[in-house]
Amino acid sequence: MIERPDYLDDLKSFKEKDLIKIVTGIRRCGKSTLFDLYIEYLVSNGVNKNQIIRMNLEEYEFNNIIDYNDLYVYVNSKLVANKMNYVFIDEVQKVRDFQKACDSLYIKQNVDLYITGSNSKLLSGELATLLSGRYVEIKMLPLSFREYISYVGESDIQKKYVDYITKSSFPYTLKLNNSKEIRMYLDGLFNTVIVNDIAERKEISDIGMLKDVIKFMFDNVGNLCSSTSIANTMTSNGRKISVPTVEKYLEALVESFVLYKVSRYDIKGKNYLTTGSKYYLSDVGLRYYLLGSKNGDEGHILENIVYLELLRRGYEVYIGKNDDSEVDFVAVNEKGEEYYQVSYTVKDEKTLERELKSLNNINDHNPKILLTADYTPYTSYNGIRQINVFDWLLNKE
Predict the structure, then answer these.
(1) Which pLDDT score is estimated for 296?
(2) pTM of the full predicted structure?
(3) What is the pLDDT of residues 338-387, one digit of tens each?
(4) Fold assignment, 145-393
(5) How far apart are CA 109 and CA 356, in angstroms?
(6) Domain 5-139 has CATH 2.40.50.220
């Protein structure tokens, strides 16, 4: 199994805490494997295997568990009296009204409850009300570049980066032997898991239109867009679609963690903007699977990788607007704000000038960082640090 140390540390830190641990993320990003790793940790630290109850609700043996009562009765029948029981339930959203079972199990003194889900609706509506203040969410992504490199080795980093973005960051692809096998795996993931799952949940009958919207969004990663502009562009290209339909499909893609919507932030006015957003992908390998490689995409793809890494590091991330200039990312945490500009290369002086201008226009003393794939000695421009993005991704900077 590929080690996922950061997520594993999160689970360890919440062990036996009076909270439901909910791991969310796109399907096949490694949530079940994370549970396996954590169970190994528990057993190696003295927990008896009969105190561990493990369920994956996508497995056939659990097909008879339809609603919350079935789930509760099954788990309750497995509990060991007078000992702590560690209960792991994968893809809990498969069970109707599952939140009621979770709440009933949570209040038991001898249950430490862990669940996974592939839909952000898991934490909305009735569940959020019922479990308010009683859960912690661990947001999981496919492999980071650092996790990927820890498996494949550090030699020839730039080539490994190309493999990482083209062959996918889904963990299972590392177990496949060649590009053909990877494409077959991504084909199954895309069509069976992503498209069909979304279509079933949202009752979408026009699968072809859903795929067209997905392709459009994958082709416009990192571009400012709105539902209206998407509908207008697709309609002008011969695929007539209404704004409400675009909004419905985008909502479904965000809920399923296929896309991440990033809103804009007015740096000067210190307020959040409601118009204009960008979308990034949970895995850019899916983009290469659907669209192939396209010249000039390197910058937006690198932006996508940096955005996901900022999420992994616990930041809230926004697109920065500063008068007429744009900053790729405003990253916010408890320490304050940081500004990031991302460019694959700034060896051309005009490109360097353009990238620095956006950061130089910000009149505060928060950290300003220019990330590029260029290998240069330590460089600073008026307080703006230029850092090699691969070193940054590997936490060497």
Answers:
(1) 61
(2) 0.94
(3) 999 999 999 999 999 999 999 999 988 999 999 999 998 878 999 999 99
(4) Arc Repressor Mutant, subunit A (1.10.10)
(5) 56
(6) no
Residue 255 has pLDDT above 70, yes or no: yes
Domain boundaries, the chain: 5-139, 145-393
Distance of alpha carbon 61 from alpha carbon 67, whole angstroms: 15
Span 70-82, pLDDT tens digits: 999 999 999 999 9
**Number of residues in the chain:** 397
3-state secondary structure the chain: CCCCHHHHHHHHHCCCCCCEEEEECCCCCCHHHHHHHHHHHHHHCCCCHHHEEEEECCCHHHCCCCEHHHHHHHHHHHCCCCCCEEEEEECHHHCECHHHHHHHHHCCCCEEEEEEECCHHHHCCHHHHHCCCCEEEEECCCCCHHHHHHHHCCCCHHHHHHHHHHHCCCHHHHHCCCHHHHHHHHHHHHHHHHHHHHHHHHCCCCHHHHHHHHHHHHHCCCCCECHHHHHHHHHHCCCCCCHHHHHHHHHHHHHCCCEEEEEEEECCCCEEEEEEEEEEECCHHHHHHHHCCCCCCHHHHHHHHHHHHHHHCCCEEEEEEECCEEEEEEEEECCEEEEEEECCCCCCHHHHHHHHHHHHCCCCCCCEEEEECCCCCCEEECCEEEEEHHHHHCCCC
Backbone angles phi, psi at 102, to 5 degrees: -60, -45
Question: Interhelix angle for 145-152 vs 157-167, to 10°?
Answer: 110
Percent of the chain with pLDDT over 90: 81
**Up-side HSE of residue 161: CA atoms within 13 Å toward CB?**
17
The pair of structure tokens assigned to 95 is: 């069970």
pLDDT in tens, 268-313: 888 888 788 999 999 999 999 999 877 668 999 999 999 999 999 9
Instruction: Beginning with the edge strand found earlier in the chain, give each strand of the sheet holding 259-266 in spatial order.
Output: 271-281, 259-266, 316-322, 325-333, 336-342, 368-372, 384-388, 379-381
